[in-house]
Amino acid sequence: MVAAVTDATFADEVLKSTKPVLVDYWADWCTPCKQIAPIIEELDREYGDKITFVKLDTNDNPNTPMSYGIMSIPTLQLFVNGEIVQSLTGAKGKGAILKALDEYL
Q1: What angle do CA 84, 34, 55 make, to 5 degrees?
Q2: Hey, which residues does 79 pair with through a beta bridge?
Q3: Calpha distance 16→23 (Å, rounded)
Q4: Is-contact 46 15, C-beta < 8 A?
Q5: What is the pLDDT of residues 6-54, one digit of tens each?
Q6: Are strands 21-26 and 3-5 parallel, antiparallel or unpaired?
Q7: Which residues are catalytic?
Q8: Contact between residue 86 and residue 37 where contact means Cβ atoms under 8 Å apart
Q9: Distance of alpha carbon 18 from alpha carbon 15, whole angstroms
Q10: Which residue from 1, 74, 6 is spatially nearest to 34, judged by alpha carbons?
Q11: Neighbours of 94 (CB within 10 A)
């Protein structure tokens, strides 16, 4: 199960993580977000030992998306040592997501 992060926990769970962290910015009204959710869950099961996968609900946590310039969802951002190294916007298939994560797997 992909863990949820909030504005309050983002720094500790994402920015200070010793592993790469993929953040899935989503909202419950977002159909494309719901379409990629099973893919993120599958990737978490397959690669969770190398990358931490988390979700951030943009409705309940508006500060973090605003500070990272998230203008549309779904958006996926990969953080390594607290820095964004990859960013994908829109519903992507498993192959496109894996390609973005490739050098960290």
Answers
A1: 35
A2: 21, 84
A3: 13
A4: no
A5: 999 999 999 999 999 999 999 999 999 999 999 999 999 999 999 999 9
A6: unpaired
A7: 30, 33
A8: no
A9: 9
A10: 74
A11: 14
Residue reference for tokens 């989503």: 26
Lookup: tokens for 86: 């990859």
For the chain, helix, strand, coil in percent to 5 are: 35, 25, 35
Taking the domains of the chain in order of start, what are their residue ranges?
Answer: 3-99
Residue 48's pLDDT is what? 96
Which residue in the block uniquely carries the two structure tokens 């977000």? 33
Written as six digits, the tokens of 54 are 């988390």
Task: Find the radius of gyration of the CA atoms of the chain.
Answer: 12
Q: Which fold has domain 3-99?
A: Glutaredoxin (3.40.30)
Beta-carbon neighbour count of residue 100 at 10 Å? 18
Residue carrying the six token digits 């977002």: 30
